[in-house]
Amino acid sequence: MNVWKYGDDINTDMLFPGKYTYTCSTAEEIKPHLLEDLDPTFSGKVKKGDIIFGGKNFGCGSSREQPVVGLKAVGIQAVVAKSFARIFYRSAINQGLLLIESSDAVESYQSNDEVTLDIEKGIIMINDKTFSFPTLPSEILAIQDAGGLLNYTRNKLKEQ
């Protein structure tokens, strides 16, 4: 697992360049362009289970879905940031991408540190340090487990 660490105000154009907004709509089309202007190595090296650490206001900018769709499609386990832009946060819930706010964990993380997440207990382990975050509501966890809001809704309808 890799951890990718970025700073404050990482906007949606940095996550997925706006110039591709109308030409890339599927996850497979989006993946090669993820973070290409911020970190050209990302799309070629990212692996399922990787984690992104970010600063304040992660995901600010426009309300395009491509950044979240792409991060989910490449298998990002979670984005841990000091704070998230509201529209990005909602889009992440809709797509089933886990977002965790933890300023202390972001500040503590250094390159090559070992990171482990325990979502149910609300714990981030960085080497031998433990950082707590509020456990997520069961509805949010259920949406994530289903792979996003659309799948969650389909499953609920089947249960009726």
Molecular structure report:
The protein has a domain of 111 residues: Aconitase, domain 4, CATH 3.20.19. The chain is 35% helix and 16% strand. It is built from eight helices and seven strands. A four-stranded parallel beta sheet has the order 1-2-3-4. It has a three-stranded antiparallel beta sheet with strand order 5-6-7. Helix 4 links the parallel strand 2 and strand 3.
In short:
The chain is built from eight helices and seven strands; from the N terminus they run βαααβαβαβαβββαα. The protein has 160 residues and is α/β, with parallel strands linked by helices. The strands form two sheets. A four-stranded parallel sheet has the order 1-2-3-4. Strands 5-6-7 form a three-stranded antiparallel sheet.
Features:
160 residues; alpha/beta; Aconitase, domain 4; 4-stranded parallel beta sheet; 3-stranded antiparallel beta sheet; 8 helices
